[in-house]
Amino acid sequence: MIPVLAIDGPGGSGKGTVSKRLAQALGWHLLDSGALYRLVGLAARNRGIDLANEAQVSELAEQLDCRFAVPENGELVRTWLDGECVDDRLRTESAGADASVVAALPAVRTALLARQRAFARPPGLVADGRDMGTVVFPAATLKVFLTASAEERARRRYKQLMEQGLSANLRALQEEMEARDRRDAERAAAPLKPAADAWVLDCTDVGIETVVSMIQERLKQAL
Ligand code: C5P
Asked: What positions does the domain Cytidylate kinase occupy (predicted)?
């Protein structure tokens, strides 16, 4: 069995950074499942397809032509869609909002399932998302649900956007994130919620480094 570390949680909880650090420390593969939903939203926009058109958007998801490059030095993962580098467009809050609209369509989720599971290759996988522990890898070695207060998550996302040279307004950002959280938690298909056997970790007042080592400890016991 290939070991899988599932890390789920809302946006801005720090799970992207934590997942990347853990994948590097363990020498495991990394699945950023949110990037796949962002890419589907972007591909639909590029083609002028209505984001609510489940048949067309799921067909796009099925045929998605994308590529990821994970740099060794901890920098941002680079992403290509249809042969074009889309790093700048992928990480914006509007791409996140589009992603959560297409992610609510059951046929889109089904279309991305096999692609996500194919990331599980030796020596192991760190899977970052909303439904890694509940739907995509229900038999994961360890399931972590990372969370933090809405204010702290907005602050972290704001800082992240600033560091990437993207513009943002803190108050508007928090409102957008809360709307996205609601959409993710209230949808019928794979809603955002901890798996019954997940370790729920509130990291509002805990630094990233500490979170990483706490998870490493738990994983050691689970392996
Ligand atoms: O994590 P990220 O912000 O990149 O995710 C963007 C959106 O993609 C989320 O708000 C959510 O709607 C969707 N998503 C999902 N299932 C996942 C990962 C992301 O529905 N496993």
From this structure: 6-220
